[in-house]
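queue> pop job 88
queue> type: inverse folding (structure -> sequence)
queue> payload:
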């Protein structure tokens, strides 16, 4: 992991993210919102939206997506949708084995080999627990050669007085948000940084468009909220605000994925999922405004809400702008504040 000085060298320009935005992002990242249980993040989003918009411009649909409309002025306005998902990867308790020990399953793309001994928060009460595994002393040499399996792991909350976890409760990594130099370290920066970005962009919505902000649910298990909200909003243009893979780490094959660095600017995706006119507009804006950027090639689907937006109804001009992120879908994700700032500059330009 980078030290603050190393991150500082990568950034190279002053930060513009203010204390209030960082405080909001901290609240969003520390909230628990596993796919299908996005309530905690939704409450924060609604609280912020009510400071910006009248009630009639805020809607919660049947899926649980939060849809906010900032109407522009004048005739022939484009309907521009910005989308960011509220959910995060995590776990669900599937069997109570007694004594505070639960079998569990993963929700979304989680790498099982990273899970042993990780602390978690369980349920709406954030009951502390740990993902337990047999200690080395109680395993055979043959067992130690085999990969860790989900079946060998349990979530252990110990003896609990009062609120007790139940089958169906979700659990998340118990990682607290922190700033480290000009970088951020947290769980669920995928995609709470997108949520915070949409809230910031609503404060500076341009008058010549109808800005439609969609805070979506269930992205991590198949872009479900993005699909229904794009259909309901029916935009002319849609941009997903996401995280992308930073590959500036030794074990990542840059020849396979591309060479993308933390601190080198937002990722602007180009490919079949992306409208070429929108791509060129984003690149031109970045160049004219002096915003550093990186181009990410996506030959097919991007695996983001941009897919759902593009294929909605008769088709929508879609784009994807991402902040490069290290260690995606792990307990500790890392990004540069300058990349986040430049993403906001790009989308507001």
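queue> result:
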């Amino acid at each position: 992991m980078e030290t603050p000085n190393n991150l500082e060298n990568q950034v190279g320009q002053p930060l513009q993210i203010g204390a209030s935005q960082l405080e909001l992002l901290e609240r969003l990242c520390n909230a628990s919102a596993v796919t299908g249980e996005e309530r905690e993040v939704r409450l924060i989003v609604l609280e912020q939206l009510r400071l910006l918009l009248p009630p009639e411009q805020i809607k919660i649909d049947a899926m649980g997506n939060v849809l906010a409309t900032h109407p522009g002025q004048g005739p022939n306005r484009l309907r521009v949708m910005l989308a960011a998902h509220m959910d995060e990867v995590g776990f669900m308790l599937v069997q109570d084995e007694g004594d505070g020990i639960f079998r569990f399953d993963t929700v979304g793309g989680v790498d099982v080999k990273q899970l042993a001994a990780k602390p978690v928060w369980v349920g709406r009460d954030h009951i502390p627990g740990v993902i337990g595994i047999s200690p080395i002393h109680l395993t055979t040499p043959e067992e130690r050669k085999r990969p860790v399996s989900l079946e060998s792991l349990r979530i252990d909350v110990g003896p609990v007085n009062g609120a007790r976890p139940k089958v169906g409760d979700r659990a998340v990594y118990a990682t607290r948000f922190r700033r480290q130099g000009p970088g951020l370290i947290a769980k669920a920066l995928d995609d709470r940084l997108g949520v915070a970005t949409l809230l910031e962009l609503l404060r500076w919505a341009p008058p010549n468009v109808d800005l439609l902000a969609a805070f979506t649910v269930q992205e991590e298990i198949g872009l479900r909220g993005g699909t229904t909200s794009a259909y309901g909003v029916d935009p002319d243009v849609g941009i997903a605000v996401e995280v992308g893979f930073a590959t500036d780490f030794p074990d990542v094959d840059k020849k396979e994925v591309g060479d993308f660095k933390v601190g080198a600017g937002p990722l602007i995706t180009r490919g079949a999922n992306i409208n070429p006119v929108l791509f060129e507009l984003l690149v031109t804006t970045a160049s004219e405004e002096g915003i550093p950027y990186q181009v990410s090639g996506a030959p097919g689907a991007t695996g983001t809400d941009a897919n759902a937006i593009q294929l909605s109804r008769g088709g929508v001009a879609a784009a994807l702008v991402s902040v490069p992120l290290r260690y995606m879908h792990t307990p500790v994700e890392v990004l540069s504040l300058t990349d986040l700032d430049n993403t906001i500059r790009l989308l507001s330009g």
